[in-house]
Amino acid sequence: MQGFWASCLSRFEKELPAQQFNTWIRPLKLDASAAPSGELRLLAPNRFVLQWVKERFVPRIEAMGAEFFSSPIRVSLNSKRRVHRNLSRRLRRRSARRAPSPSIAARGALEPHSGIQL
Q1: pLDDT grade, residue 84 (50/70/90)?
Q2: Does residue 85 register a pLDDT over 90?
Q3: Which residues contact 48 (CB under 8 A, 6 or more apart)?
Q4: pTM recorded for the entire structure
Q5: Residues 6+ apart with CB under 8 A from 7
Q6: Can you give the CATH number for the domain in which 54 is found?
Q7: Does residue 118 sit within a domain?
Q8: How many angstroms separate the CA atoms of 44 and 51, rounded?
Q9: 101 within domain boundaries
Q10: Which residues are CB-neighbours of 2 under 8 A, at least 6 positions away?
Q11: What phi, psi does 90 have (nearest 5°)?
């Protein structure tokens, strides 16, 4: 998909005014995570760019894909913030599951009423 996305960038840069290209297309990044065959995953810097690209450019990208691959492709867009937020949640859940809970004896020894004086 990297070759295809590079081809899209090149074509959009020629077809669009520089301001449009730099505002809407250049910020899109290819999502390097494993995508199913026939799917182009792109990351937008925020939801506004994501929505704008989805409404105005995804059909053109899909048409370029059908031409490039001689078969239809699917374009999926996500915002980088959303991907980062989801990854953070997964990592927090994973670390919470792995963290050992203190034993009852250890908790009792740390409580102020346990009789230990400092």
Answers
A1: very low
A2: no
A3: none
A4: 0.65
A5: 64, 68
A6: 3.30.300.180
A7: no
A8: 9
A9: no
A10: 30
A11: -65, -40
